[in-house]
Amino acid sequence: VQATAASMPYNATKGGEYGAVPGTAPATGQHVTPPSRLVTSGTLSEVNTGPKVGTQAPEGVNATIAPLDRVRVDATGQVLTTNQGVRVADNQNSLKAGTRGPVLLEDFILREKITHFDHERIPERIVHARGSAAHGYFEAYEDLSALTMAAPFKAAGKRTPVFVRFSTVQGERGSKDTARDVRGFAVKFYTDEGNWDLVGNNIPVFFIQDAMKFPDLVHAVKPEPHHQMPQAASAHDTFWDFVSLMPESTHMLMWVMSDRAIPRSYATMQGFGVHTFRLVNAAGESVLVKFHWTPKAGTHSLTWDEAVKISGADPDYHRRDLWERIESGAYPEYELGIQVFTEDEAAKFSFDILDATKIVPEELVPVRPIGRMVLNRNPDNFFAETEQVAFCTAHIIPGLDFTNDPLLAGRIHSYVDTQITRLGGPNFHEIPINSPIAPVHNNQRDGLHRQAIHRGRVSYEPNSLAGGCPFQAGAAQQGFVSVAARLRNREDCAKVRAKPELFAEHYNQARLFYESQSPVEKNHIAAAFRFELSKVTVPAIRGRTLAMLRNASEDLANRVAVGLNMPLPDPMPKVLTRSPKPEVNVSAALSLFARPGNGSIAGRKIMLMAADGVMGESLLAVHAALFEQGAVPRIAAPRIGPVQTADGVELQADVSLENEPGFLFDALVLPDGETAVKALLGDGHAAEHIRDQYRHCKAILVLGSGLHLLQAAGIPTATASEVSDPGIVLANAADSGAQAFIQAVAQHRHFQRETDPPMV
Ligand code: HDE
Questions:
Q1: In the chain, how many domains are there?
Q2: Is beta strand 667-670 parallel, antiparallel or unpaired with respect to 605-609?
Q3: Gene3D superfamilies, alphabetically (predicted)?
């Protein structure tokens, strides 16, 4: 019982929200004195009052806390007022001429309240509308000044505060988290030399090569305009029509049809800067760079059947997971790595590093780890922070620079532009979550929603009246200087609407990706193409996609064609008949299994099934062992509330078999106890949950007579003597099975049992 209360996924230090006793909500109407923030009772990061800016700071520091405190509002113990600070005496009734008479126009309190409500919504992001975010910090491993003067990399151990927003691309703000989709991975570094936004994705390549095609891509993938369907899905005609006419998308399609597009958690996916950027040192020398984020917890994904089911039972699955991980202290952590190479090296590659549909294989340029990022604080308010945060690729700092990637060029324009509509004007940098911690001084003035009150009569430069201030910073004062990169080929200087030749090679890296996958991953890619294309109603689009796939992999094209009951068409004609020879044909790093993580099961949700008459001791022993590992064990019974064990102890069921279906959990424990097992055999939910766990290849621990549940659910290897599936752990008298089970959970999935179609 104790363990159940302690495993509640919130931060017990938030005393003001949960009452004096951790875990007890204040009674309705009871007001609780707010804890003094930044003293002893804030969240883990709030209690930290160490130095805020850039320098070495203690664990959990977040430099944006202090500036944001200026605008934080806590109404505990406060009287209700209007926006003008006038105390409101009656918040129940509008002002009327008599109790049954008309409402009076003079009721400024009603009008203010309704008017504000009418304007509560702002336009959602045109892409990446659905997202979830968290605060944290980046910590450099070493001094990188030989390569770059960028502020976060100036000293070993230096910490820079960050705000990170993860997102899906296609769906609307209220759509599901587990759609098959690319995930945004946008990081705002609040450096002491200005804000740097690394606005990346969880996939290192993109669908298109030139910003000119972005509106077309987005129009094609979004719900179709005549009937606004389907929501948050690429499995429809317009998307496949477009991509099958754009062979440059072949490589990206491989990634999007792989399990990368259905991550288990934001904490178990990689992130990539996608484009090639530049690092610049104090001497003005520059090298080319690709950015990689790698999760400490390993790269893990859902299965497709699971993702579909989760989207119904918990559309907020990833948002909840991120929130709960942080509240329970299982902080998501990622390592930042860079691939560094020179322009001369790049000139010899078989692909163009300005082409965002290409990776630089790790075999060609290894990834060098340079720091880690820890997300340790949830936002206080979704709208003020997660919704109003404005990421812009144009936000870079001295030490970094762009390359001529034509997709990046469009982005440098687009992000600032889109905020002007979305956030209502050019002063969005003054919204607290967007404002830099570095000082801001310039002669820009006015505009909608201006917050700063600029003093003096000078708003121009040069000036003498203000002593020439604010003055221009030379390079010596860390002023931003663009790299004077020379174009290699002077003919390129002619104005043209055209692409470099290597941009026309579309298939080498699509093949590389597919060939680098494990057999299980290949199965999933083939199944994803089959699923998506079988939702396409126009057969010619299916045929064209197959023709394109043939150029990347005959094996894959064949498997998809068989899956669609279609003959293979001729391969799509290639633009480049003489294809450049790729440097590598297989890259182990491209498989999800290449990064199993640190073996921790922290943050994994595990269902412990129970009913009256359950053998409490064995169940609680497993509960304690899981809790010890930082996992989130949940007791699930036919109804929530008290469950009587066989020896008369009362357990509390956190969830019911009805309100939290089994597929929301990473693993399952079946209980011992004849009476409980009998009760669970009579509840169809139990068998459903067991079958889902099995089908989704998750670990199952069977305690004693719980074996009957496994057998009744029709699990193929379910007799005590013949369980050969390493994902099914049988406890016996000598061993609770907890340790073997923890190892099985750490494996994440047991794909050995997977069949297509599923047997169970
Ligand atoms: Fe974006 N993208 N994008 N994008 N993108 C936006 O900006 C755009 C691209 C990415 O959590 C928008 O503030 C163009 C690549 C993320 O707030 C918009 C092009 C990559 C986010 C926009 C691209 C991304 C966005 C919509 C092609 C991976 C969410 C709202 C030239 C490297 C950021 C907004 C957040 C959001 C434009 C292609 C990542 C319209 C024109 C490639 C993570 O400005």
A1: 5
A2: parallel
A3: 1.20.1370.20, 3.40.50.880, Catalase core domain
Distance of CA 498 to the CA centre of its chain: 35
**Ligand 1 neighbourhood includes 167 CB (under 6 angstroms):** yes
Distance from the alpha carbon of residue 521 to the mean position of ligand 1, in angstroms: 28
How much helix, strand and coil, in percent to the nearest 5, is found in the chain?
A: 30, 15, 55
pLDDT given for residue 658 in this prediction: 95
**Confidence (pLDDT) at 70:** 74
Q: How far is the CA of 207 from the centre of ligand 1 (A)?
A: 13
Do the Cβ atoms of 178 and 311 come closer than 8 Å? yes
Report the pLDDT value the prediction gives residue 718, as an integer from 0 to 100: 61
ipTM of the complex: 0.98
Q: Provide the strand spans (E) within 8-158.
A: 131-140
487 occurs within a structural domain: no
Residues for the chain: how many in total?
Answer: 760
Ranges in the chain, pLDDT < 50: 1-63
Tokens of 450: 């201006």
b or e along 682-707 (b: 16 or more beta carbons within 10 Å of the residue's beta carbon)? ebebbbebbbbbbbbbbbbbbbbbbb
Domain carrying residue 534: 503-594
Q: Which of 122, 124, 126, 127 to mutate to test the pocket of ligand 1 (most atoms within 8 A of CB)?
A: 127
Q: What is the pLDDT of residue 485?
A: 75
Q: Which residue has the tokens 């070993």?
A: 156
Residue 750 has a CB neighbour count (10 Å cut-off) of 18
What is d(CA 25, CA 6) in angstroms, rounded to the nearest whole number? 14
Q: Is the CB of 122 under 6 A from ligand 1?
A: no
CA distances from 369 to 57, 372, 590, 738, 754 (A): 21, 8, 17, 35, 35
pLDDT of residue 53: 28
Shared-domain flag, residues 319 and 403: yes
Atom of ligand 1 nearest to the CA of 199: 43
Considering the domain architecture, whether residues 338 and 206 belong to the same structural domain is answered as: yes
Q: Establish whether 201 is a catalytic residue.
A: yes
Please report the pLDDT score of residue 38 as a whole number.
32
Task: Among 568, 594, 620, give the residue marking a domain's end.
Answer: 594
Is 229 inside a domain boundary?
A: yes
pLDDT for res 51: 33
Residues 39 and 163 in one domain: no
Are 135 and 240 members of one domain? yes
Q: What is the pLDDT of residue 721?
A: 57
Whether residue 303 has its Cβ less than 6 Å from ligand 1 = no
DSSP code for 614: B
pTM: 0.91
Task: Report CA(200)–ligand 1 centroid distance (Å).
Answer: 8
pLDDT of the residue at 722: 58
